[in-house]
Amino acid sequence: MTNYGHHETSPLAESGIDHADLAGAETLALEDPRLVKVTRLRLLSEPGTPFWDLSYCYGLDVDGKPVWVDLPRYQFPKRNLSRALVDMAREAGRYGKGMGLLDAVSTLN
């Protein structure tokens, strides 16, 4: 979607996710085994900048409750983004693709 010179993928309005569900939610680190799924990873950048900056990340715990996800990195390369995300998950002892990490990416450039 392009609005006012910006390009956005997977906007919040299309995701069916309600931020109100995360009010007071627990924060789990990526390596925490209670984190079973990443549901949204929001990345921001400026045109011409080679990196994405983390805006927020959230997911679901073993009970299906929404949680904030604390990632070990806060900046990712635009080139080979998927590879960087998989590597980050692997370093945390997790299987990123299986957790939905790659499907949860939303960008605003």
User: What does the overall shape look like?
Assistant: globular
Strand content: 35-45%
Structural class of the secondary elements? mainly beta
Main beta sheet strand tally, sense and closure: 6 strands, mixed
Number of helices, where a helix is a run of at least 4 consecutive DSSP H or I residues: 2
Give the tally of β-strands.
8
Radius of gyration: 14 Å
The N- to C-terminal Cα distance equals 11 Å
What is the succession of H and E elements? EEHEEEEEHE
Query: Considering DSSP H and I runs of 4 or more, what fraction of the residues is helical?
Result: 10-25%
- Stretches where pLDDT is under 50 for at least 5 consecutive residues are none
| Domain tally | 1
Mean pLDDT: 87
Give your account of this protein's structure.
This protein is mainly beta and 109 residues long. The protein has one domain. The chain has helices spanning 12-15, 81-91; strands at residues 2-3, 6-7, 27-29, 35-44, 51-61, 66-70, 75-77, 105-108. Strands 3, 4, 5, 6, 7 and 8 form a 6-stranded mixed beta sheet that branches. Strand 4 (35-44) and strand 5 form a beta hairpin. The termini are close together.
Question: What's this entry about, in short?
Answer:
With 109 residues, the chain is mainly beta. The protein has helices spanning 12-15, 81-91; strands at 2-3, 6-7, 27-29, 35-44, 51-61, 66-70, 75-77, 105-108.
Using brief descriptors, characterize the structure shown.
single chain; 109 residues; mainly beta; two-stranded antiparallel sheet; globular
